[in-house]
Amino acid sequence: MRKLTTGAAALLASSALICGAPAFAQDSVGAPPEQTHFKVSTYKPAVHDAATTKGLARFNHDRYSMFIHWGIYAQAGGVIRGKRYYGASEWLMSNSKTPSAEYLQLAQAFNPVDFDARAWMKTMKAAGFRYMVITAKHHDGFAMFKSAASPHNIVDGTKFGRDPLKELAEAAKAEGIGLGFYYSQYQDWTEPNGGGNTWEFDPSKADFAEYFNRKVVPQVTELLTNYGPVREIWFDTPGPMPAEYSKRLRDLVKKLQPECLLNSRIGNDLGDYTSPSDSEIPPASLVQGGDWESVFTHNRSWGYSAFDNDFKSTNTLIRLLTTSASRGGNFMLNMGPDGRGRFPEGAQKRLLAVGAWLKVNGQSIYGTTRSPLPQTPWGVATQNGTKLYLHVLDRPADGVVRVPGLSEPVTKVSLLAGGGALRFKQAADGLSVDLPAGAPPTDDLVVVVETKTPVAARRDQGIVLSPAYGRQPLDVADATLSPGVKLDAIKTQLSVDDTRKFYTPVGLDDPSKSIAWTVQVERAGDYHIDLQYSATKEQAGREGVVELGDQKRSFNVVETGVIERRKPAFLTFQPVGILHFDKPGRYQVTLRPQTAGQDLFTLRTLYLTPAN
Fold first, then answer.
1. For residue 58, which phi and psi values (nearest 5 degrees)?
2. I need a surface site. Which of 56, 420, 523, 555 has the fewest CB within 10 A?
3. What is the pLDDT of residues 53-88, one digit of tens each?
4. What is the mean pLDDT of the chain?
5. What is the arrangement of strands in the sheet containing 602-610, beginning at the earlier edge strand?
6. Do strands 585-593 and 543-548 pair parallel, antiparallel, or not at all (unpaired)?
7. C-alpha–C-alpha distance, residues 98 and 81, integer Å
8. CB-based contacts of 440: which residues, under 8 Å, 6+ apart?
9. Following DSSP, what letter does each residue of 385-418 receive, concatenated?
């Protein structure tokens, strides 16, 4: 047995706000710091007015957006008073507990002489982004635009003396890229009456209404009246802000620009679409429709960090983009320019590589809808009418991509890149496609399946198992829960990667309670069981069992430690035994406690790996 930290594969398997946020992070609103269990969110369709519906149609068509975190914190690059602060550099003022007057001195040195709005937009266009959002005001309270509401703005408070948002608005229009603004409505660390700065100001003496009326309303008004059409206002960390303030913001935005969208972080359930927790793509089983946008940062920080070059690979970025699209959502990717206004070279190189892939394969992303297929071991799928796009992210060992249960008549199968026809066979059990021998390795080989009628949703067929695919995750979010068991979202800090959320069953405290997965076995044989979980000292020694018919594989729970909200959580990867499937077909794999007691453990994933 060994302790493993989760990596890119697990990120996509169960995927697990903004900016490594401490106490005021959006997903910790109203919760004590030690809380780790949260109610699970489901994504459902909603009814909107005509203008918002029009904005959402454009939003859902575009699928891919760029996020820019840029402010005077970029001048520091994560360093203040000679000390490095790892993680989110835009939280430097808070993490270092720097007083306002001292922090604002960064503005005196901030002079991004290399900033070129047109060059930024040309890069975004070449990278395949369809719209972008930039921080107009982050939690530090410094506005990156000309504002009459506060002297702490880039035009009046820096040597630069220009309004970059004005220049970006003009460049975005010229390049055909949608423009949106991030605005921190509750947190403002340079304002005694704003939220978040508890090291300098007394929250009990704060007059939030004074701050809101004097600064927030005027600045949001400026953003919506001085920069042309705005695609969205991306609010963040509403904190304990009462609903009346969220409603006032919504009414203001919709009055000034009716098609401008609002994300869910406006607070109080008043957004037009959902922003999940940072670094999370919701499990497909929880997405029942609706409009949403996953948001990831390219490296570990959201703002520029002089010592963080841990940029995600091109392959990882394509996986995140295709996985989001396959579940019916958008993918927003963040990058932080430096204090001179330059994109980090390592980030830009990878962005342009994704853009090159999209230039060939963009029709499998833009304008598509969610996959009608269940979890597939070779990758994900998107759809547009009678075209089903198979994104082969992990090529089967035998070179055959199988789509179980696909019954709509197939008229043609081809590669999207180049259009070469592929051999295929359609039978009662579904479709199989032969990948071309010697096909060049790519980050995502896209196969186009054309059918007489659109492929109907069939997401209940189970997880496909075969030696051709290797190890497969059986995620808790995809399991069937027995009466008395519910699903919780666990929010913590998983070490190594930036996944911060996973799902776990709660209520596995008696043998009568269980969770079960449906699996579709393509080839008979043995499959090895591994469990990924966390357990406390009190849970250690509890016994559980994994069942397949009359096969029962027992295990004992081992201690890994208590999961805490703001500390790294380690999950054990525990081998259990082998299950034998004697013929192809559909089966049910069940996990339950062997005795009554407290909850068995905090389970994240059960893995099945071919063991022949």
1. -65, -45
2. 420
3. 999 999 999 999 999 999 999 999 999 999 999 989
4. 91
5. 2-4, 571-581, 525-534, 602-610, 472-475
6. antiparallel
7. 10
8. none
9. TTEEEEEESS--TTSEEEEET--SPEEEEEETTT
pTM: 0.92
Longest dimension (CA), the chain: 75
Half-sphere exposure of 128 (CA within 13 A, CB side): 25
Burial-class residue 324 by CB neighbours within 10 Å (0-12, 13-18, 19+). Answer: buried
Q: What is the model's pLDDT at position 437?
A: 81
Neighbours of 453 (CB within 10 A): 9
Q: CA of 168: how far to CAs of 184, 216, 598, in Å?
A: 20, 22, 56
Check: CB of residue 401 under 8 Å from CB of residue 435. yes
pLDDT, tens only, 382-393: 999 999 999 999
The crossing angle, in degrees rounded to 10, of helices 243-256 and 217-225 is: 20
Please say whether the beta carbons of 346 and 309 come within 8 A: yes
Enumerate helices (H) and strands (E) in the chain, giving the number of each. Answer: 14, 32
Asked whether the beta carbons of 236 and 26 are under 8 A apart, the reply is: yes
297 burial type by CB count under 10 A (0-12 exposed, 13-18 middle, 19+ buried): buried
- Note whether 480 and 516 are within 8 A (CB): yes
pLDDT for the residue numbered 42: 77
Q: Which residue has the tokens 């901030």?
A: 110
pLDDT at 440: 60
Give tens-digit pLDDT for 86-102: 989 999 999 999 999 99
Q: In the chain, which residues have pLDDT < 70?
A: 1-34, 439-443, 494-499
Instruction: Report how far apart the first and last C-alpha atoms of the chain are (Å, whole number).
Output: 21
**What pLDDT is recorded for position 567?**
80
Residue 593, both tokens: 């406690």
- Residues pairing with 448 in the sheet: 389, 414
Element housing 608 (H / E): strand 602-610
Tokens of 424: 């295929």
Q: How far is CA 482 from CA 507, 510, 545, 591, in A?
A: 9, 11, 15, 11
Residues 167-176: tens digit of each pLDDT: 999 999 999 9
DSSP label at 108? Answer: H
* Helix, strand, coil percentages for the chain (3-state, nearest 5): 25, 30, 45
